[in-house]
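Figure 6 in text form: structure in, sequence out.
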């Protein structure tokens, strides 16, 4: 198993960052100094990313009465700079990988978990009962890309991952660790760190024990709410409702009634979020 883990590490570290237009998109969206004009210009250079941004802006989730036809209009009238940055980053990071290599991988579920985790994590930031809090926009980004390592592992180890998806015993992370020595959360961290993503987001992608109850750092808080958000998103996908007793993450960072309220609000938007997931996935192209 040690040899397998070392091999997996080596393969992941050799994955180059996205190149060409995707590389330019990543550079721009991770630069806080970039303004609306620069962001729109770089997105417009990539027809694939621009198309997905427009699909999201026109989705039922945002409820626009008239069609949004330009990226600039999508940013100004619907998404805002923060969400546009995050969506563009997630789409660009995924451009390296071909998840269709593996039978059993549900890309729609992947993107539902991503967009729903992002929304939940962002909302949780407003009701946290701790001193050090991550910015809501950062939490949205972390929620959106927290599972990027799953796509990387599917791309690099299709045979092993097909076995993982064919098996239902244990958690997904446990099955992946058993097959290739590392899980998808660790893979996400390795990619994010190698590709130069912000440090607070990198550390949020490594899911260890729950955050300490006293004076957690913003990174620790972000890791916990990202994990909690993903657990709620999975519950909603499989059951169309959320019972916190079934959620794999419990935390004292936020009151349970606040978490339930956020989860209930998301329940009312499930169909719209499922539509958005479908619009982002390759199946819609």
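Output sequence:
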């Amino acid at each position: 198993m040690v040899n397998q883990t070392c091999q997996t590490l080596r393969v992941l570290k050799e994955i180059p960052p996205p190149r060409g237009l995707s590389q330019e998109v990543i550079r721009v969206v991770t630069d806080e100094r970039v303004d609306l004009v620069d962001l729109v210009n770089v997105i417009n250079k990539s027809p694939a990313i621009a198309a997905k941004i427009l699909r999201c802006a026109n989705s039922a989730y945002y409820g626009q009465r008239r069609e949004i036809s330009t990226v600039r209009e999508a940013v100004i009238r619907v998404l805002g700079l923060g969400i546009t940055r995050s969506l563009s980053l997630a789409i660009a990071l995924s451009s390296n990988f071909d998840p269709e290599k593996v039978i059993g991988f549900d890309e729609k579920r992947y993107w539902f978990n991503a967009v729903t985790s992002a929304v939940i994590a962002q909302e949780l930031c407003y009701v946290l009962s701790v001193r050090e809090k991550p910015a809501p926009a950062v939490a949205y980004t972390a929620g959106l890309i927290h599972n990027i390592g799953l796509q990387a592992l599917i791309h690099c180890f299709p045979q092993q991952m097909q076995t993982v998806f064919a098996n239902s015993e244990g958690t997904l992370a446990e099955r992946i660790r058993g097959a290739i020595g590392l899980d998808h959360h660790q893979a996400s961290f390795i990619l994010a760190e190698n590709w130069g993503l912000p440090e607070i987001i990198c550390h949020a992608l490594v899911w260890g024990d729950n955050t300490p109850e006293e004076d957690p750092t913003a990174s620790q808080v972000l890791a916990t709410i990202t994990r909690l958000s993903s657990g709620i998103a999975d519950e909603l996908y499989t059951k169309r409702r959320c019972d916190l007793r079934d959620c794999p993450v419990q935390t004292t960072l936020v009151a349970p009634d606040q978490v339930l309220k956020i989860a209930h609000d998301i329940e009312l938007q499930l169909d719209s979020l499922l539509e958005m997931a479908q619009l982002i996935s390759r199946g819609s192209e």
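Caption detail: The two ends are 39 Å apart (CA to CA).
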